[in-house]
UniProtKB/TrEMBL annotation:
TPR repeats lie at residues 609-642. The keyword Protease does not apply. Keywords: Membrane, TPR repeat, Transmembrane, Transmembrane helix. This is Uncharacterized protein. The chain crosses the membrane at residues 15-32, 82-113, 143-159, 179-199, 220-241, 270-287, 294-314, 320-337, 357-375.
Amino acid sequence: MKTTFKQFFNIQTTLKIFVVILILFSYASILCHKINLPTDDLGRHLTNGEIIWQTKSVAQTNLYSYTEPDFESANHHWLSGVVFYLLFKIIGFSGLVIFKIILLLAVFSLVLFISIRRGNFWIASLASIPAIYILSERTDLRPEIFSYFFTALFLFFLYDLEENPAKNRIFWLIPLQLLWANLHIYFFIGIAMTAGFLLEKIITHRKALKNNPLIKKLSFLFLSLIAISLINPYGIKLLLYPLNIFKNYGYDIVENKSPFFLQHLMHNPAISAFKIAVALLIISFFFSFRQWLVFRPIFLFLASLSTTIAGFLMIRNFPFFALIFLPAISINLKNAAERIKIEVEIINERVSSVLKIALPCILTGVIILIFSHYLNEAFFKNKEKGVGLTFQSNASAEFLIKENLKGPIFNNYDIGSYLIYHLYPKEKVFVDNRPEAYPKDFFDYTYLPMQMNEETWQKIDKKYNFNIIYFTQQEGTWWGQSFLRQRLRNDGWAPIYADSQAVILIKNSPENQTIIQQYKITKENIIDKIIYLKDNNFKIQMDGVHLLDLIDRHDLAFDWCQELNKKYPDEGRVWLEMGYLKSAENNQASLEGSSQYLEKAIELGEDLPATYDQLGLIYFNLGQFLKAKSAWQQALNIDSKNQNAKDYLKQYEALNLP
C-alpha cells in the first residue's frame, strides 16, 4: 500500500494530474459563454422541439416562412430540437450552457484518454494546445455537439474492439447510430469511421480473411449502421441528404467557407492553429510510416486525411479534425518518444533521472503559459462570459410584442431563428438561417437583389407590403449594411427601436403615426436612447459606436471611440473604427488623421487586406500616390485574389501615376 501511495504522489504523476486538470479547465473556460439568441440557431431549434413534442410529427415543408411555405425541407436535426426543448423546460438557458460544457468536456476527455492510453501522455498534452485552439472555433450550443460526442464514442468503441476482439461492446454503436441519424446531419461520419477501421483490418489480415471474427464483426456493424440510419422521418432521403444538401444552397455563410478565404477577412487563432496542426500531423505520419512492418495506421491516416480535407473546405469541420488530430499525433509519435527515452537512459543514467523530472516540469510550464491566453479578456471580446443569455438578447422581441406591432416583417437572414422563437405562429419570417429550406432562386432573385437594388426593393415591398424591417444591427454583409443605411436615410421608414443586438424600423404610414411619434429615433435623440451602452463591456460599447455610425452621427461615434481609446489604447479595432469614421468627413485634415489611425490599427494587428485597401484610398485622396500604390500592393501580398486592390492598381496604372 505504501508503494502505491508513493507511486501516485511522485512528481511526475502529480504533474500529469495537474496538466490534465489544466487542459480541461482551459477548454471549459472557452465553452463558458452566454447564448447570443438573436444570431444563434437555438431559437428555431427550441420551437422545432416544442412543435414536434406537442404534435408528435416532423414538418415536411418550410413551416416558418410566409415567402416559401410549401417548399419541401428535411429537418435533419429534428431530435436535437426535442432534446434542447425538453432540457430548456427543465433547466432554462443557463442549464443549456452548462449541459453544453459538460457534454463537450466529456468529448474532449474521452479523446484525450484514448490519446494518452494508446499514445504518449506528454505528446497528447502538448497536442491539446493546438487542438483546443481549433475547437475554439465552434463553441456554441448547436446540434453538431452531438456529432462531436458520437465521433468520440465511435473512436472509443472501435479501439476497444481492437483491444478486446472477443467482446461485443462494439454493437452499442448500432443504437447510438440510430440516435445520431436523427440528431445531426453528420451521422455519416460514424459509418465512414467504421468503414475505415474495417479497411485497415482487411489490409492487415489480408492473408487470413476467412472466418476472421474481427472482420466479421466490423462488416456486420458497417451494414447495420447503414440500415439503422434509415429509421428516421424521411427514410432514404435523409440517408442521402448529406450528398444532396448543397445542390440547393443559395446563401453563403461563414461556417461553410474555407479557412484560406476567411484568413484574409479576420484574425482567427483557430485557422493558424489548424495549419500548424496539419503540418505537425504530416510530420508524425512520416515517423509512423517508418514502422510500417509493425504498425500500420491506415485508419488514422484515412481519418486524418479526410478531416484535413474537410477542414480546408469548410471551417465548420475544424472540430472533427481536432478530435482525430489529438490521438493520431500521440499514437504516431509514441514509439519515437520511447526511443528517445531509451537512448537518453543509455547515454547517462544520471542525466536520464534529471530529465525525467525536468522535462515534465518544462512541458507543464509551456502548457500553462499558452493556455493562460484563454483566461484573459482577449478571447472574450466577442463573447460574453457566463451562462444564460447575452445582454439584451430578448429586448427587441419583447418591445415588438409589448407594442403589439404587426407584420409582414422583412428580416435579415441572421435574425430569422430568433423571430421564429419569439413570434411564431402569430408572425412568420421572410427568411431564416436555413439556406436549404428555401429554393436557391429565392436568394438569387429575391432576397439578395432587393437589398442591392432600390428598384427591386420597391417591387418586392409592393408585393408583400412590409410593415416592419427587423435586422441585426451588426449585419455582417455589405449588401445588408448598405440596405439598412438606405432605409434609415429614407423618410418612408422610421427607426423605432435600436439596441446592441437589433434595429427595428416601421413603415411611415398613417396607421403607424402613434408609435412613430412615441419611439422614433432621430439623429438628435439617438445618444440619449443608447447612452446606457457605455456602462457595458467592450463589445457592447462598440455596438453603440456602430449604431451611431448607422444613423450617420459620425461625430458622436468618433467621440465615443476616443473615450474607448483611452480605456483600451492597444485595441486595434478602436483605432480602425476611428480611421473609417474620420475618412467619412473627406477633408484634408480628417484624411490625414484617418491615415494615422489606420496605420496605428495595422501596427496593433488589424493588418487585413480591407484595411490596406481603405488606407490606399486615403493616401490617394491626399495625393500621396506612391503610398497608395504600396498599400494596395500590400493588400495583394496578403491576399492575391483581392479584387478591390486589383481594381485600384489597374486604375492607378491607367492614370500613368508613378
